[in-house]
Write a structure and sequence with these properties.
Layout (H helix, E strand, L loop, with lengths): L1 H14 L6 H16 L10 H14 L5 H16 L6 H15 L4 H16 L38 H5 L5 H11 L18 H7 L19 H11 L27 H12 L4
Helix pairs in contact: 1-2, 2-4, 3-4, 3-5, 4-6, 4-9, 5-6, 6-8, 6-9, 10-11
């Protein structure tokens, strides 16, 4: 037992050492958690320092571009989400609140696995339900997002308004996942994609990564603009004076005027080149 206590102490020191690489510190967290679930069950281990460490680095690691480091962060967060006891409800609620805020600012590829972990935390934190309820009661205090200790963030006096914005995201998968969380769904399934878990976090991050211009799922091609035919016809006839544009509803009656014809050959060539590029 003495040897195990020394090992746990050294891992805790390694995890909170700012001079160590962030990846090493997260691996120390996972090792510490594994020991707690194994031989360390007989010991009264206080994970307050470990949880505070992970809470502090969220704003740093979530913006990393290395998918392996992001997947490691999701693995650490999933360990907290799976804890049935030993973690204060307010502490877990602080993670939920901070993760929702991060999901608004990180790319969808990162936000999706983070939302999945957040969903697991919500299921294990009954007190977090009040953060989703709408009420008009005046709170005596407010949530402090700058505090790095989750126990003192006063999170239970706040609402997760970020989830409403996420449920209207431009990304279809992110919108669907956030909407399901709003409905307190027990499963997250998006367009045939496997349920997001810590185990497949790396695969999800790589699949939805758009840093190289790839967008998944593919963007639906918009319908052809009806005014395009008028422009193409004007190109063929060489006359742009008969094309009219629709004025906004608030415009004055004299707002709509014919588009001027190209006055020089160079201007005509520019118009022809621009409209020709619109041809498929």
């Amino acid at each position: 037992i003495s040897l195990l206590q020394d090992l746990l102490s050294h891992l805790s020191d390694l995890m909170t050492d700012d001079d160590m690489p962030i990846t090493t510190r997260m691996e120390a967290f996972l090792t510490l958690h594994a020991l707690k679930q194994g031989e360390g069950q007989a010991l009264m281990i206080d994970f307050k320092r470990a949880h505070a460490f992970l809470y502090q680095i969220l704003n740093q690691v979530a913006f990393e571009t290395d998918p392996n480091q992001l997947a490691l962060l999701v693995s650490c967060l999933s360990k907290i989400a799976q804890e049935k006891k030993g973690i204060e409800p307010a502490r877990l609620a602080a993670f939920i609140k901070r993760l929702f805020g991060l999901c608004l600012r990180v790319p969808p590829a990162t936000a999706l696995p983070l939302l999945a972990v957040t969903q697991s935390m919500i299921e294990n934190c009954s007190q977090s339900k009040q953060m989703f309820e709408h009420d008009e009661m005046v709170q005596m205090s407010s949530f402090d997002p700058e505090v790095d200790d989750p126990d003192f963030s006063n999170v239970l006096s706040s609402k997760v308004w970020e989830l409403c914005l996420l449920s209207h995201s431009f990304h279809p998968a992110l919108e669907t996942v956030a909407s399901q969380i709003r409905k307190v769904s027990n499963a997250i399934n998006v367009a045939g994609v496997p349920v997001f878990t810590a185990a497949n976090a790396l695969n999800v991050i790589k699949t939805f990564d758009d840093s190289r211009g790839n967008f998944f799922p593919a963007v639906t091609r918009p319908k052809s603009n009806p005014i395009k035919k008028k422009f193409l016809k004007a190109i063929e006839t060489g006359s742009f004076t008969h094309i009219r544009v629709r004025a906004p509803s608030c415009a004055s009656p004299g707002f709509v005027k014919p588009l001027p014809a190209a006055s020089t050959e160079s201007e005509t060539n520019v118009l022809l080149e621009w409209f020709s590029n619109k041809r498929e």
